[in-house]
Design brief:
13 strands, 8 helices, Rossmann fold, 5-stranded parallel β-sheet, 2 domains, globular, 6-stranded antiparallel β-sheet, alpha/beta, Elongation Factor Tu (Ef-tu), domain 3
């Protein structure tokens, strides 16, 4: 569906609605990208793990081969927005830990969604049409409770993610490394193909330099492991994760951060009787709570923290 806005009208809308510039757009593969934007105003103070919103106008073009959409006439002059966790490159251009003074941008890890059941995807087909120097909207507020607030310097910290759920963990890893974290840090990421690991080279460099850091990747659709593929739940259930980090998952000294596919996380539901029930198939939360971990709930801090991506 084509809009009937003039170039002058679109230019005026961009000037009126946009407040940030794309300074880098790196494609890990055709449908996965690391997007770096620089807001016009100063970036507000925030914690690693938090999120903000990105937006572009419905009037912007969409990349080819995406599900057709039908928009009402009044939608063409509006923004489509979505919340994204803030990622980071961990390392600066010099190969050293990114310095605070060089953080004049916000980085996002974005997958292109070409089609969906409920409604045609509106945002990512437009985001992926952007180029370096392009303009977009970034919300001024950065918020969220998925942070390292309760982690102590000697705690073991395990990040577990599927796909782009790795984004907030990159920023959290940088925060821990800057603080000289003494405990073990491990990042476990499960994707379909190795080409879906947009930060692989970065984490390999960090793991080679930092003795207490492990980067563990799982792929589920590569031909070589289709017969014996593993998911994050399998690493926890079998004890394989403990072997790879050379220490037990002790709830007294370990914090686990889960981000991505809800099936991997397995967030329990609180019933009217106050009891929790777990979804099926079994997720990481149920496996860990059976071993003495406690899931974070409002006003009930625990050592399992989660951020669902849909």
């Amino acid at each position: 569906m084509q809009h009937n806005l003039t170039e002058e009208e679109m230019s005026r809308l961009r000037e009126q609605e946009y407040n940030a510039t794309v300074v880098r757009f790196d494609h890990a593969n055709p449908e996965l990208a690391i997007l770096r934007v620089r807001p016009d105003l100063a970036i507000p103070p925030h914690r690693a793990g938090q999120y903000t919103s990105l937006g572009v106008g419905y009037w912007e073009p969409r990349v080819p081969q995406c599900q057709e959409e039908e928009l009402a006439p009044d939608q063409w002059t509006k923004l489509v927005k979505r919340a994204y966790s803030i990622s980071c490159p961990v390392l600066g251009d010099d190969g050293e830990l990114l310095r605070i003074k060089d953080e004049d941008f916000l980085e996002f890890y974005v997958v292109l969604v070409r089609g969906a059941e409920k409604r045609p995807p509106a945002l990512t087909p437009r985001l992926f049409s952007l180029k370096q120097g392009g303009r977009l909207f970034v919300a001024e507020k950065i918020t969220g409770n998925y942070t390292l607030e309760h982690v102590r310097p000697d705690d073991t910290v395990i990040f577990m993610a599927t796909g782009t759920g790795e984004a907030p963990h990159n920023k959290m890893l940088l925060e821990l490394l800057r603080a000289g974290h003494r405990g073990m840090i491990a990042s476990v990421v499960c994707v379909r193909y190795q080409s879906d690991l947009g930060y692989l080279a970065t984490h390999q460099q960090v793991a080679a330099r930092v003795p207490n850091y492990r980067y563990i990747t799982l792929t589920t659709r590569e031909k070589h492991n289709l017969a014996n593929k593993l998911y994050i739940q399998d690493l926890v259930r079998t004890g394989e994760l403990e072997k790879r980090i050379s220490r037990p998952l002790d709830p007294a000294t370990t914090h686990v951060f889960l981000c991505g596919n809800p099936a991997m996380i397995g967030v329990p539901h609180k019933g009217s009787d106050g009891n929790y029930t777990y979804p099926k198939p079994t997720g990481v939360v149920e496996l860990l709570e059976a071993r003495g971990f406690r899931c974070d709930h409002p006003r009930e801090p625990g050592n399992i923290h989660f951020e669902k991506y849909w």
